[in-house]
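Reply to dn_fold:

You asked what the input looked like. This is it:
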Amino acid sequence: MNTLNFTYQQAPFTLWLNDAAAILDITPEGNTVHVPRQAGEGYIKAMAIQPGLSFAIGNFRFNVDAHLQIKDNGQNGYILYFRKLDISDKYIFHLGNIKKETGEETYETALLLSSRMDHSFEFKKGTQVMSLVIYMEEEWLNNNIDAASREKLQDYVANGINNYNKEVLSAKHKRIIETMLREDLQLPLSNMFLQTRAYRLTESFLNNILTRSDKETTHSVTETDMNKLINVEKILVEQCMNEFLSVEELAKIALMSETKLKKLFKQVYGMGLYEYYQKNRMHQAKELLLSGKYKISEIGVKLGYSNLSNFSVAFKKEFGCLPSEYKSTIEIRA
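and this is what came back:
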């Protein structure tokens, strides 16, 4: 197999998985497909959340070039893509006749499209894909979203290619998806865990769009500036265990003025630079507590706190409880 070609019309992912397995010339194992070595390595799992709402989650690497073409399915549904790619060579996205290409080593995207839109993705051999894709059928939309909100979503999706690189894969979204990908697929409650997280991401993404005023739209952010903001966001997440880089330093990295960086970052990510850094810092503390490997004092030191009470205050501000209280709830559950 030199190239993997998969052309389909979006269907509920529980059905779609059978088509994906057929292309790979394998049989699904329950609701999971394990990608064969001639095509790649990894897995794809598909599930229904509710009638009309389904998802596929996967973590895999292509051993061949892959071309996925999604055709108009005649239904007024939506497809929501959350993806993080470690790109080999390049990644190409087509929407209709419009082409977008990136050669960055790492690419992250959150993208909402109509299932009536022809679009495609091209992945080069060696590309690693972490992906969560959610399909919202027309009936589910009608039953769960009011008419005014559906109209706003229609207006949003109608922007087509303008939405490419418009939404960011926030640190919150990445944490949820990474947790889903780490979940042991054999555990008794793993399905429920994945369903609730996928639903939470759907709700969060749609809510961000529906509560956004016209003045808060990110249309004014150019693709170049968006890539710079994504780079700054990545630095803030990676540096959350270290001292906060000054706005001046971040602005130099982004090749923007401090004023422009602060304004655009808040416009896209919904909060200021330090607030975003601090939020991720506290979520990292939560992850360390969950691991059970560290004392609270050790976590405070890891995060750069010389005063443990300051760490406790910051943790309570984010989660509504002290680190000691949170640790107690973990121990009780265990």
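The chain has twelve helices and eleven strands.
Hope that clears it up.
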